[in-house]
Write a structure and sequence with these properties.
CATH superfamily of the largest domain: Immunoglobulins
CATH topology of the largest domain: Immunoglobulin-like
Number of domains: 2
Order of helices and strands: HEEEHEEEEEEEEEEEEE
Number of strands: 16
Oligomer: single chain
Helix content: under 10%
Distance between the termini: 26 Å
Length: 220
């Protein structure tokens, strides 16, 4: 076992890649999408450093840390940065972390949060009372309401394990069909609490997030 651990953590991760085509923004949130790690990299989590131009100039950026579960170590993961000011430009960079240390920082990116009147997207709705779990999966039910959208949109179902106080996990995400209201999430751990969000993404990376849903899988 000790030999396996050394093999897993034989170097720091390579520089993470922020995928701008998969990232999105609303009036008070930016959802950063991180491309799958380089083959051979083992990542325990990410650290996101962000701030407004004024914060950057004063070296007063904030940091969000997100642990990485095994299920997202070989796939895209999403890190929402919440409680931002509307119509404000923010700068972001990300480092990957494992037991050997920190990777180089990602190429910095910046974007402006939106004015609420510029989003033009309906807020997705999860029907909590109809959603449920088994020991290894969850069924998330979304509203079937139909409203005219001014633009083409995509829907994503994000989920993550509930973490201990003071820590959080990055979100796994899969694209879901708008015409369906029943969505399955498999390969979950038994007797574990998870959070779920539905994200609608429109043109220019505009997005709206549903309210969070908490569900606990049953014991095996």
């Amino acid at each position: 076992m000790a030999v396996q651990c050394l093999a897993r953590y034989n170097r720091v991760p390579k520089k993470p890649v922020l995928d701008l085509h998969m990232s999105s923004r609303s009036s008070d949130c930016v959802v950063l999408a991180l491309a799958p790690p380089t083959v051979g990299d083992v990542i325990d989590g990410y650290e996101v450093v962000f701030g407004t131009w004024e914060q950057v100039q004063l070296n007063m950026e904030e940091t969000v840390r997100a642990r990485l579960s095994d299920s997202v170590n070989e796939a895209y993961c999403f890190i929402p940065i919440e409680n931002l000011c509307q119509s404000t430009r923010y700068f972001f960079s990300v480092t990957a972390v494992n037991q050997e240390g920190h990777s180089p920082s990602s190429d910095p990116v910046h974007c402006r949060t939106l004015d609420p009147e510029d989003i033009h997207l309906q807020v997705p709705i999860i029907l909590e009372i109809q959603s449920h779990t088994s020991s290894r999966s969850a069924t998330v039910i979304t509203s079937q309401r139909r409203q005219h959208q001014r633009e083409m949109t995509k829907l994503f179902l994000l989920h993550r394990k509930e973490a201990d106080t003071g820590t959080s996990f990055a979100w796994s995400g899969t694209r879901i069909e708008r015409e369906r209201c029943r969505h399955e999430v498999d390969n979950l751990q038994s007797d574990t609490e998870y959070q779920f969000i539905v994200m609608m993404v429109g043109e220019g990376g505009r997005c709206q997030l549903s309210e969070k849903l908490w569900l606990k899988t049953s014991a095996s």
